[in-house]
């Protein structure tokens, strides 16, 4: 269980709010107004913080100006994997030492190289380009890759920023589709990608979009399953 809100009565907006969500689920919540979204997000993030689960809310005022305007979109996306590139460099240095037999502790270096190689593989080091390609295609931003962030429109910058968040692999991504100007196809692709990466999402929408595990709406101050 990733998230469980049971009989929350802190707000007059929902009465008693009950909401449960498993890991890897893609949930849509349909038709909430701005105040209801804000209240719901506060309840969800409070619970996630108590459980020490990672999350991102997008769009969010704190994300404004996050992109390095002097970098191309491709460089920005590659920077999401900085730690993996540093690990790869460390592995290559060890391999050179082992090949030249410069290290007196040859067996120790070989053992460390093996452990680092396993870590690199487990963290998806050989799948970086594949992950970037999946996100880029899902958001239809292939044509933006060679452009610097400073050359992008506000909508394009928002999509590029969303791409970095998708590559970040948080436990739960909370998206407001109504503020993102995403097409239904793009949102469906995003949810499929998150499911493949074993991540979860809550997406606020105005209508049901294919790709969700569950869908909810508010009736009589209760969050209920939406009829799809």
From TrEMBL:
Pfam families: ABC_tran. GO terms for molecular function: ATP binding; ATP hydrolysis activity. Gene3D superfamilies: P-loop containing nucleotide triphosphate hydrolases. Residues 16-178 form the ABC transporter domain. This is ABC transporter. It comes from Isobaculum melis.
């Amino acid at each position: 269980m990733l998230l469980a809100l049971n009989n929350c009565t802190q707000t007059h907006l929902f009465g008693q709010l009950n909401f449960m969500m498993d890991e890897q689920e893609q949930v849509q919540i349909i038709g909430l107004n701005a105040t209801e979204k804000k209240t719901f997000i506060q309840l969800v993030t409070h619970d996630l913080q108590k459980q020490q689960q990672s999350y991102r809310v997008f769009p969010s005022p704190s994300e404004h100006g996050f992109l390095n305007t002097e970098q191309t979109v491709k460089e920005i996306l590659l920077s999401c994997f900085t730690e993996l590139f540093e690990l790869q460099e460390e592995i290559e240095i060890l391999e050179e030492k082992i090949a030249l037999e410069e290290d007196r502790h040859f067996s120790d270096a070989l053992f460390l190289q093996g452990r680092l190689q396993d870590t690199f593989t487990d963290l998806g080091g050989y799948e970086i380009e594949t992950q970037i390609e999946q996100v880029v295609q899902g958001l239809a931003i292939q044509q933006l890759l060679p452009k610097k962030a400073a050359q992008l429109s506000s909508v394009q910058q928002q999509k590029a920023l969303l791409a970095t968040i998708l590559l970040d692999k948080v436990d739960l991504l909370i998206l407001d589709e109504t503020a993102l100007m995403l097409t239904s196809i793009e949102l469906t692709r995003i949810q499929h990608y998150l499911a493949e990466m074993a991540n979860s999402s809550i997406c606020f929408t105005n209508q049901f979009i294919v790709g969700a595990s569950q869908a909810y709406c508010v009736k009589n101050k209760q969050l209920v399953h939406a009829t799809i």
